[in-house]
Amino acid sequence: MPESRNRDKANYTAPAEKRAQKVSSGNAAWFAPVMVGLMLLGLAWVVTFYITHQTYPVPAIGRWNLAVGFALMMSGFMMTTRWK
């Protein structure tokens, strides 16, 4: 039976260390306060609208004040999906 050839392959060498990469460990410092602030601002907007018998915070837009308040709250809740 014929013998197989010897391979001229060097021994295993470990790969060179990769350059240190900046690892993102979370969100920016402003992210959580803005998220909570939007939710609280929206809640305050809606509560103010109901307490003042639907006249404030912006009398000119009437019931659209509810849409503004809920939009602010939903913006805060949408930010919670990106929170790390």
Please give a structural write-up.
With 84 residues, the protein is mainly alpha-helical. The protein has a domain at 31-80. It is 45% helix and 0% strand. The protein contains two helices and no strands. The longest helix has 21 residues, at 31-51.
Measured by DSSP, the beta-strand proportion falls in under 5%
Number of helices: 2
Backbone CA Rg: 30 Å
Main beta-sheet annotation: none
Note the run of SSEs as H and E. HH
Instruction: Return the average pLDDT rounded to an integer.
Output: 88
Structural class: mainly alpha
The unreliable regions are none
Oligomer: single chain
- Estimate the global geometry from the Cα principal axes: rod-shaped
Helix content: 40-55%
Q: What is the number of beta strands?
A: 0
Q: What's the N-to-C terminus distance?
A: 64 Å
